[in-house]
Amino acid sequence: MEYTAINLHDKFAKFSDHFVPRIIARMNNYHFKLVKSEGDFVWHSHAETDETFMIIKGKLTIEFRDGAVDLEAGEMFVIPKGVEHKPFAEKECHVLLIEPAGTINTGDAGGELTADDTLWI
Amino acid sequence: MEYTAINLHDKFAKFSDHFVPRIIARMNNYHFKLVKSEGDFVWHSHAETDETFMIIKGKLTIEFRDGAVDLEAGEMFVIPKGVEHKPFAEKECHVLLIEPAGTINTGDAGGELTADDTLWI
Question: SS3 string of A45-87?
């Protein structure tokens, strides 16, 4: 049978818009998603689940109501469920998200940055 | 509050043995684990769960009964549950594993390479 590696950089090269996650793999009921972030995302939280951010390229700051964490390539952070957060990237940042299938990017906040959660690439 | 990034390279620098996964983060009931692989691991499968391999440094081949996949840094692969596989690395390879907490490294096979599944670093 043919088994194919999933190459993150090749997948990132296939899209250029910001804040629109693309699914690249499924593990049980979890999705691995790639997203390019630049500028401010919206404050939001996910009531039902933790959410993992892994930085593949660039830098991302995740702000919390009582602090912040600065992440760069090779670093990760797990946002606990229910915790409000706001990602910010001064320059374009390539992020791998790991979270349950069906997790909406804007969580409880909704709004115009809400993306389709079923987009594969 | 103090929020701290998890730096994969810093975590890898804290141990040197092979085939002994270290937990670095938890997301819901899943663990992120680092492992250094070199040489042949054992044929095994996980009856209850998929398992994600992400290569951080080096190269890893995952053999299946009917094929194989070659992975290098920046690539990932999800082993479907129940599928027999055998990782092999000619030189030391740094791997990030993502799988449910309690997943045993040797799966159904057991044997002397079976590692503690509760080791944090």
Answer: CCCCCCEEEEEEECEEEEEECCEEEEEECCEEEEECCCCCEEE
Q: Which residues of B touch A8 (CB under 8 A)?
A: 74-76
Tens of pLDDT, residue by residue over B37-82, are 999 999 999 999 999 999 999 999 999 999 999 999 999 999 999 9
Domain B29-121 part of CATH 2.40.50.100: no
Any chain A CB within 8 A of the CB of B25?
yes
Query: Any chain B CB within 8 A of the CB of A88?
Result: no
Question: What are the tokens at A6?
Answer: 């999933």
Q: Report the C-alpha gap between A106 and A91 in whole angstroms.
A: 20
B6 with A100: Cβ contact below 8 A: no
Min Cα separation A81/chain B (Å): 8
Section A106-117 average pLDDT: 94
Tell me, yes or no, if A9 comes closer than 8 A to chain B by beta carbon: yes
Q: pLDDT, tens digit, for every residue of B18-30?
A: 999 999 999 999 9
CATH fold, domain A15-100, is Jelly Rolls (2.60.120)
* B50 to A64: CB separation less than 8 angstroms, yes or no: no
Domain ranges of chain A: 15-100
- Of the candidates A5, A8, A99, which has its C-beta nearest B70's C-beta? A5
ipTM over 0.95? The verdict is: yes
Q: Which two tokens stand for residue A101?
A: 């299938």
